């Protein structure tokens, strides 16, 4: 009876699993493709990663190809496909500023674009190799360079809405992030992107709210898009305090520590993985939090010093040597000996990693144009030479003019 019961259970489990697979495949049968291609509007902040699902396709299509156009009907179209042996891209392997053709991946008919940039804004089509389109998106990636930070603890308020006749420009905020620290005072924030309302929008673009799309949407005429470009994204920040979740330590690990502590002083055991790094004195350093994205709640500490965005956010003070940018990276300009220590990273309210930073004045530095400091030095040198050349040419032109017009100064006594 036990063997028979086991056989029946395995058969039922296999039927249920097969039924689940069939149900997943039948999703596209229940979602017919529109007869007239429409564009779903979606807005993101620069350096974010986004996913565009292909919500419908014919049942006989087993694989999809994604296409990209800057503007509707443009002559240049990028083909995004993982066929012909292309290796799937991982977000951790993507570099900032690389072309979109090495920053995308297709998984289960969905397009994933990693670390999107404003140049990635445009129209995305889900279709086949033959160029048949089934579903489309209107993607607007807004730059975070001019982002304005508003601190509620200081009594600041977000920017007021703009009204230009029938054009209404405003900010739409996302949900609050979790508190970036636990057990101590932390911060949470919400990202606000630029949206507008206008009655003269193209009907081919699908809108969640009537006549409302993101400011960079292709549904907005170029004149209105240029006017809305001055309304930059916003960041709303406020303080928060949450308790830490207690995690039970492993008994064996605790027993080993107690035994070692009896032999001498208790050893220092890091609570999170710590990486060691040596930095040359006077050079810049950018530290990233592992697995963090711009929309995550990320915090930085140095030993027992907390870097709050109220004081260390980029743009708060132009003379800051240590600051946090809008992509949650910690910047250290012109490293000093006082920068030595352990820098801890919090992600979504949990401390996840640390970096022990050492500063040295020794070692040979190999200059490279990929280094921003090398590029800055070259630019300053070229600007200096251009300035000296301009002064030299101006002096000689003036002397030539004076000679031609017989106005040479007489230096004789």
Automatic annotation (TrEMBL):
PROSITE patterns the UniProt entry points to: IG_LIKE
What subcellular compartments does it reside in? Membrane
User: Source organism's superkingdom?
Assistant: Eukaryota
Q: Name one GO cellular component term.
A: membrane
The yes or no answer to whether the keyword Glycoprotein is present is yes
Keywords, in A-Z order: Glycoprotein, Membrane, Signal, Transmembrane, Transmembrane helix
Topological relation to the membrane, as annotated:
Single-pass type I membrane protein
Positions of transmembrane segments: 382-405
The Ig-like domain covers which part of the protein? 267-345
Gene3D superfamilies reported for this sequence: Immunoglobulins
Which Pfam families does its entry note?
V-set
InterPro entries assigned: FAM187A/B, Ig-like_dom, Ig-like_dom_sf, Ig-like_fold, Ig_sub, Ig_V-set
Signal peptide positions are 1-18
Protein family according to the UniProt entry: Belongs to the FAM187 family.
Q: What is this protein called?
A: Family with sequence similarity 187 member A
What is the originating organism of this protein? Ursus americanus (American black bear)
Q: Give the gene symbol.
A: FAM187A
């Amino acid at each position: 009876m036990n063997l028979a019961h086991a056989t029946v259970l395995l058969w039922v489990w296999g039927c249920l699993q097969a039924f689940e697979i069939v149900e997943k495949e039948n999703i596209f049968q229940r979602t017919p493709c529109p007869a007239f291609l429409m564009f779903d509007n979606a807005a993101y902040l620069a350096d974010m990663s986004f996913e565009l699902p292909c919500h419908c396709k014919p049942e006989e299509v087993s694989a999809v190809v994604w296409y990209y156009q800057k503007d509707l009907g443009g002559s240049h179209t990028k083909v995004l496909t993982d066929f012909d042996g292309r290796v799937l891209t991982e977000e951790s392997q993507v570099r900032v500023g690389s072309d979109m053709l090495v920053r995308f991946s297709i998984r289960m008919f969905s397009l994933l674009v990693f670390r999107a940039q404003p140049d990635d804004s445009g129209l995305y089509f889900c279709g086949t190799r033959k160029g048949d389109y089934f579903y489309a998106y209107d993607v607007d990636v807004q730059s975070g360079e001019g982002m304005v930070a508003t601190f509620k603890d200081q009594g600041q308020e977000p920017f007021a809405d703009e009204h230009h006749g029938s054009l209404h420009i405003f900010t739409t905020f996302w949900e609050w992030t979790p508190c970036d620290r636990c057990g101590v005072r932390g911060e949470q924030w919400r990202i606000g992107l630029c949206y507008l309302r206008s009655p003269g929008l193209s009907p081919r673009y699908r809108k969640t709210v009537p006549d409302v799309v993101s400011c960079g949407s292709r549904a907005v005429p170029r004149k209105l898009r240029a006017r809305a470009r001055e309304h930059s994204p916003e960041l709303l920040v406020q303080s928060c305090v949450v308790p830490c979740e207690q995690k039970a330590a492993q008994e064996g690990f605790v027993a080993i520590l107690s035994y070692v502590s009896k032999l001498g002083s208790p050893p220092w055991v890091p609570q999170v993985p710590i990486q060691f790094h040596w930095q040359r004195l006077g050079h810049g350093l950018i530290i990233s939090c592992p697995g963090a994205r711009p929309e995550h709640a990320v915090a930085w500490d140095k030993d027992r010093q907390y870097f709050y965005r109220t004081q260390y956010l980029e743009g708060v003070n132009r003379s800051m040597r240590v600051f946090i940018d809008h992509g949650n990276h910690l910047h250290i300009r012109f490293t000093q000996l006082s920068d030595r220590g352990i820098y801890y990273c919090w992600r979504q309210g949990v401390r996840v990693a640390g970096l022990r930073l050492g500063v040295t004045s020794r070692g040979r530095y190999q200059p490279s144009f990929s280094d921003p400091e090398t590029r800055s030095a070259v630019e300053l040198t070229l600007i200096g030479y251009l300035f000296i050349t301009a002064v030299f040419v101006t002096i000689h032109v003036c002397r030539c003019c004076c000679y031609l017009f017989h106005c040479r100064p007489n230096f004789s006594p």
